[in-house]
Amino acid sequence: MVRKRDTRAFAQHPDRAHDPSAEVDSLRRGLELLRLFDARHRSLQSADIAAKLGLSRVTAAKLIATLESQNFLRPSSNGDGGFEPHVACLALGRAVKRGLRIVQVAQPRMLALSQRFGVHVTLSTRDRLHMLVVEHVVPSGQVRMGLDTGARLPMVSSASGRAYLAAQPEAARSKLLTSIKGDDSQGVFRQATLDAAFHELEKRGWCFLASPVTSQTNAISTPIRAGASADYVLTAMTVGPDVEHDLRDEIAPDLLNQARQIAFELGAAD
Predict the structure, then answer these.
(1) Is the separation of the CB atoms in 165 and 126 below 8 Å?
(2) Structure pTM?
(3) Of the candidates 41, 213, 91, 242, which has an alpha carbon nearest to the alpha carbon of residue 144?
(4) In what helix (H) or strand (E) does residue 175 lie, and over which residues does it extend?
């Protein structure tokens, strides 16, 4: 049976729309299902979906069938019997990027930085306890490193995540760190490492991380402080040995300048 909501009550009390008790369970489960897919999980079996979401196989099958009928899922193209995202997801993603003013402002500056130094440049924002890649620019002749739009990076073990955390007000940062600790099933949380990154960003304006993606990669990240918020992070990543010095001394000043210019342009637009 489908539960009906009193839409008049929401019109009279719009704040209730943000109340967890006002959530539609089936919609929430469907959205959680779509969240399971990323660069490492391009296809999932129905049994895996049920297990990851803590649902019965029957319930998972109904959700899959509904999403499939609306073109959000399709049978996996590799023929493994699983499912993968379909074109309706792509349409949503494109609509999101078109509506983000920061992408329009940042993309030319990211491209200029990438071409000037031959580095990967990434714009990311928080998605729960991960950093979500919004835009990624690849230097000529290099591979994408799995950092396409929509890729997720763990907050505590990525330069962008540490820069984001460092830029948040103390209360918000403390709340996030508590959630991260509670979700740390692999034991990667190290408060001392994070404190060092926070100190580095306070002192230099950016934080550094070695091997954030693969060996022989190095990254520096700085928050984009637009007004009172710092919702986005700009990252430069080098690939190859003996480039840390260049990253810190030559690329970092330009990275900081580009982040400031992006923030300025966003403020001017407002």
Answers:
(1) no
(2) 0.84
(3) 213
(4) helix 170-182
